[in-house]
């Protein structure tokens, strides 16, 4: 009997009372992954071991967080196979259980970072795996092949082989170019790309890369335990770091005379005399659950603020942006505030405007390095519309724009930051970010009746 | 001329087109702080120094993250004055600039954690301060007075003095008890409180404590740099940790013979020979901006899921909960997914149900330790309503409940987890969390017409 996909395509467009009342869900760029992450299988090394070595498995290689792309193919992500990565990661890095791995931890041994991204259940010849339920699909992994330490040679050899086929690592950020899906790659951006290797990704590819990038980056930024200062180990398919109770490198160091490579950490004295030389000082993260063990995502707010009359939009600009370029205000949410409060605070700090009601519109993952952009629409209170840049002088300018001017700019004035404006743009007119940016989606919703309820195109 | 409050009370209830279209904003417990955080002044030590020592300034003391409360006063937060905390924090800890502090950094010297929380602009006799704009209000600080290291004696003395007045530190969590504001403290919860010192806080007090707790906890969990393993320094009024380039404790250790208190960190060899013995190995967080320097907030999703017909609600229960107790499903957002995707993934993982359209309802800060709860309403697709607990077996059970049953439980079956159900509850009926929980607010909205648009009370 064929296995049913456990996770059919998410169906935000499916007709429902919610979508009839609130409209179609806005799916922002970097969301929309085709993979079922099956996160509950990440600690199951029997599964990971089978997934790593299955013929259907796809590997995304990254060097210094940049993905492997094929410039001959619209700079799409380029996938490699188990046979390609075996010299880097070894025959079966998941041969031992997670518990056994902990016991064998040696901080002196460099292990290339691997991340299990999920399975594509649309692939019928994928791995079939029986957990509590049955799953089937093509597994996806990301691997850091930056040449270093013990895998330097293996990585260099693999990269040279790929380069021999005309395949290399992307340069620049996804998304600093034109809005993209399979159908809208413009000839001009294609030409630019083939020169610069700047990746142009369809929505599903961008979402997979976002997951890979954010996890590889988080692991790279957190080799040490922030609680106790000791090196940590990546577990759970790359989605967790743990502070092991033992470290074979300690025993090795203690028996040798060399203490020259010790870093002084005067705050954490290690006075415990233990029978096992590899044992490390206690760490609070080993007791109970610590959020330090899990990847970090920083919530940010980005908001289209309308005036009380509901016919103008508050936009701001930074000094480094091209002339006439504006966008919605944005900033990091602070600890212990709601998103609604964060929106009011940021708008007050940056523009002096006081916002009343805030409605959350949609969200966007943003993997540079680890943001979650929470898009909102807010409305100013009548006595609070005066702009004042004097609190937190982050902006070069902020201004109220009539909806008509914004509507015109959304038609002819959008582009990536470094790119020329769209066709029909008249010099001196307002310029705005492209549709891949949630800022653009917020503005589009607002000028099309999000606030008043009357469609207003 | 009197200074106008820079940040008048946020006015989510102010009549606006947005509130007429989407209804009144739901303000969840732990949000609604009365303070203007004036975060842009946190690096200004002239301001912090004046704020710390002003007669209007209020200090919230915490020991092991628990706030000082006055059991004789409904277990409200208890505030102390500069003269009280001076023996702990010193005459003027902000006398030097942030840059000078960096140069004098000594990881061997314990400094009690202070957090600048903001100013209450309603206080007319508050500190007046001229930045780029003029600000006036009573400053608020939180201070960790857990007796330890160099301030052990001073903290113990202060605590003993307070205890002599019948004032002490709270026990247990805010919010595990009955929903509270100034008007709804029930005699029974009052009685319980005076016995257990479990804090009962009004909304503004809870919001101030949430800010204090989350920041003190973050600083306590992050004494070491996750990038390089070296100890870090709290700056920016407690809202940032930095990895200083020098550490006077290094020089002291190097000139002494004692290397016994060194922790072995084999991955980060320090082979640089420098003229200045206090200089530390390079760290990537010192170049550019690193999110590791800033407090961490973990986005979570919590969702009321309705069936396709729009008349039932999906609720789940954990094993450790009392009988008949259910709530909405919830879980951590993962890296590089939108909130809408996180909602769909969590509901699939925990209950096997497939959700289409997701609408974000409201958000709630949750300082245990650092969550941002993003509340959403989702609607199942017609073919995806079958419950299956077999993917991620986190729940004891999940069930579809008719709106009528939920409505009844919201009237008579809500309480804190450890407390008896409300008046009129009949044994065997559904039990639900109290109105201070966002889960309750989501269910209330849904049974009152959030999905269909027809009020349905």
From TrEMBL, chains A, B:
Source organism superkingdom: Eukaryota
Keywords per UniProt: Hydrolase, Magnesium, Metal-binding, NAD
Start and end residues of each stretch annotated as Disordered: 259-291
Listed cofactors: Zn(2+); Mg(2+)
MF GO annotations: metal ion binding; NADH pyrophosphatase activity
Catalytic activity: a 5'-end NAD(+)-phospho-ribonucleoside in mRNA + H2O = a 5'-end phospho-adenosine-phospho-ribonucleoside in mRNA + beta-nicotinamide D-ribonucleotide + 2 H(+)
The keyword Hydrolase appears for this protein: yes
Domain Nudix hydrolase: 295-423
The protein's enzyme class: hydrolase
InterPro entries reported in the protein's UniProt record: NAD-cap_RNA_hydrolase_NudC, NADH_PPase-like_N, NudC-like_C, NUDIX_hydrolase-like_dom_sf, NUDIX_hydrolase_CS, NUDIX_hydrolase_dom, Znr_NADH_PPase
Enzyme Commission designation: 3.6.1.22
UniProt record, GO biological process: NAD+ catabolic process; NADP+ catabolic process
Pfam families hit by this protein: NUDIX, NUDIX-like, Zn_ribbon_NUD
A GO CC annotation given for this chain: cytosol
Family named by the database record: Belongs to the Nudix hydrolase family. NudC subfamily.
Protein name: NAD(+) diphosphatase
